[in-house]
Each structure stands twice: as C-alpha cells, then as structure tokens.
TrEMBL record:
The F-box protein AT5G49610-like beta-propeller domain, residue ranges: 101-345
Taxonomic lineage from the root: Eukaryota, Viridiplantae, Streptophyta, Embryophyta, Tracheophyta
F-box domain mapped to chain residues: 15-46
InterPro entries in the cross-refs: AT5G49610-like_b-prop, F-box-like_dom_sf, F-box_dom
Record's protein name: F-box domain-containing protein
Length: 373
C-alpha cells in the first residue's frame, strides 16, 4: 500500500487508492512513504479528490446551545476532531460566544450575540476571518440572517482549495423593506445595499439557514413569501408561497433545492409525513408549486404514535444538506439523518431538544507533516 507502481499516474493512483478511506488510512502510508507524502501534500490534491468524489460527505452537524456551540460527529475520526476544535470558538469580552448561522462549501458562518460581528471559520484548517457587520444593518434591522458561499462561478480551486475566496450575504428586514448586501473576501468590503418592499410590516426573515439553488439564495420570509437574492446582479425578488397550500405546515418547512429538478423546492412535515414540493412552470410558462413526493416517516423510522405531551410536534425538520440530499429530522426519540433518494436513515443522537442544525460536509484531509522525509 505504499507508492504507486512504476509507470502509473500519481494523480490517478492517489485518488483511486484513497477512495472511501478514513483519515488514518491516509496518514499511515504518508508517514512511512515519501511518495505518498508528496501526493497528500500536493496543493492540488484536495481539488482532484473533490472532483473525483463529486459530493463531499456529511461529517456531522453544528448546533447552538445555551452554554457553547457544539458539533455532533456522524462518521470517522474527522468529525471527532472537528468536535474538539469547535470548543475553542470563544469571543473576548462580554458576549463570550459565537452562534452558528450557516454552513456551506466547507466553511461555517457564525455571528456575535448582537450581530455586530461575523466569523467565517474553516473547521478543517481552523482559519478564521472576522467581519464587522455594517452599521445600517446593526441599527435598523428587525431581524437578520446570513449565508456563506464560494463566489458565483468559482468551481475550480486554482491552487490551494482551502485559501479560496468566499462571499457572505447578509439579509434583514427594516420597516416594510427587506434589505441585503454582500461581502467579498477578495475586496474585504461590503457591496451596496439593495432592498425590496415586503408584503406587510410583519414580514420577517426566518432564522433557519437559507438554500443555494443555482445562482440564487433563498430564505423564508413571513408566512407567504420567499426572499430571493440573485448573486449575479445582486438583486432581491420575492417568490410567492401561497397560504392555502403551505399554512398547514406552520413553521415546520424549509426552502431547498428541488428533488424533482434543479430549481427551487420546499421540504415540509405534517404530523408524520415529509412532503417534498417543487416550483415548476406549466405549459403557459406560469410557475406553480407541485407536490413531488410524500414520505410516511412513522413506519419508516418506527416512531411512537403517542406523543409525550399534548401539542408537541412529532417530527421537526431541523436541517438540510447543501444540495437537499439529506434531511435532519428531530423526533420524539432523537435526531435522524435521512436520505430521501435511497430512503436510508440513521439515528445520530438521542437529544430531543435540538431545534436547528447546521450540517457540515467536506473532505477531511489531515495535515501530514512527518519528520525526516
């Protein structure tokens, strides 16, 4: 299991052998073999590994708690290392703690208690970028949310993947307007504020993480709208979410990339049923919401039909993967990770108090720095 045989491509051999291996399987050969060490240390190796595997695995999820943020590992030693690293996230001063807001493209976004500052954190490298929130958002905002992502169109790595640029999109409501602006790590500055009128003064951006669908970011807004931020021209628009279709779900609903295609979708739970909706155009080119799938969860997850208390919610959508490929469901017996396409599921914790989770997906390659090579 040491070096590739003579005449083989280093890139191909490294990727094929490392497919599906755990961190320790990468470390051991790299520690004893010079050629393996050079492969793993190559700045472009992680990029080629990502292209080979396509979708990174979900290593676990972050969640906020009254004492400090936590990470629940789902698989491998990598998740355990991230769980240890998250305990070091502390602030100086009175606030004392960061709160998770979003996770995407290998980075986590956190905020201070008063939304005065944001922190973009790479759990793998521990690199941190601190960003001051604009005064207009701090002083006039009724509610806030934010997202972190790679710049639009930046699918390649260009060298070191982990030092690639990032954007942060901040959204908030003030009076009868929804307002957004975008921060670029390349310029280290916020862009111009853009705004749009909301259907009513009571509209607020929900605190749950948004969804990236193509070149648009989406957040639930009020009871009957979805806020869309277009990354290419930095504009806000509203998408209708009819009350007659979706009021039955109350707040047990999340925006997601549609399972039926590449467009906008919604995932919602009613009692013990998971409903997957898609926004599609009809033959008149008019967009409408279509129910794609209805999944009964009580028999699949073997959930008790008797609720522990009157009025409790038996199944709650706590989080979604970046591509909507996994759903985290809080139940009366614990938290499950559920794959709708394969109908597979796994209990990840028996904690029934977690409301919102921030799934973290990435390839974990340890920093191999052996001596004497």
């Amino acid at each position: 299991m040491c070096a590739p045989t003579r005449g083989e491509s280093t890139e191909k051999s490294g990727l094929e052998v490392l497919r599906g291996l755990e961190d320790e399987d990468i470390l051991i050969p790299a520690l004893v073999c010079k050629r393996w060490h050079r492969i793993v240390r190559d700045p472009g190796f992680l990029c080629r590994l990502r292209a080979f595997h396509r979708a990174p695995p979900v290593l676990g999820f972050f969640h906020n708690s009254p004492d400090f943020p936590n990470f629940v590992a789902i698989q491998g030693m990598s998740g355990i290392r991230i769980a240890a690293a998250v305990r070091d996230l502390r602030m100086d001063g009175a606030g004392g703690m960061w709160w998770f807001v979003d996770c995407r493209h290998g980075r986590a976004l956190l905020r201070s208690r008063d939304w005065a500052d944001l922190l973009v954190w790479d759990p793998i490298t521990s690199h941190r970028s601190f960003i001051a929130v604009p005064d207009q958002a701090r002083e006039g905002a009724f509610d806030c949310n934010a997202a972190v992502l790679r710049p639009s169109g930046a699918t390649g790595c260009g060298g070191d993947c982990r030092s690639s640029p990032f954007n942060v999109v901040l959204v908030f409501t003030s009076g009868s307007c929804a307002i957004a602006c975008m921060y670029s790590s390349a310029t280290r500055a916020w862009g111009e504020f853009v705004s749009i009128l909301t259907p009513s003064l009571q509209c607020e951006v929900t605190e749950e993480p948004g969804a990236l669908v193509g070149d648009e970011l989406y957040w639930l807004l009020g009871e009957s709208s979805i806020l869309e931020f277009r990354l290419n021209d930095q504009r806000l628009t509203l998408v209708e979410r009819p009350l007659e279709k979706f009021s039955v779900y109350k707040r047990n609903i999340r925006v997601v990339k549609s399972e039926c295609g590449s467009g906008l979708g919604l995932a919602a739970v009613k009692n013990f049923s998971l409903h997957l909706w898609a926004r599609e155009a009809d033959h008149h080119d008019t967009a409408k919401w279509v129910l794609c799938r209805e999944i009964e969860l009580n028999t699949l997850l073997e959930l008790p039909l008797t609720l522990p208390r009157v009025g409790s919610i038996p199944v709650w959508i706590s989080g979604l993967g970046e591509d909507g490929n996994v759903v985290f469901l809080r139940t009366t017996v614990g938290m499950f990770i559920f794959w709708p396409k394969t109908m597979e599921f796994k209990m990840v914790t028996n904690n029934v108090l977690i409301k919102t989770v921030y799934p973290y997906a990435n390839f974990y390659l340890p920093q191999v720095v052996p001596t004497g090579l």
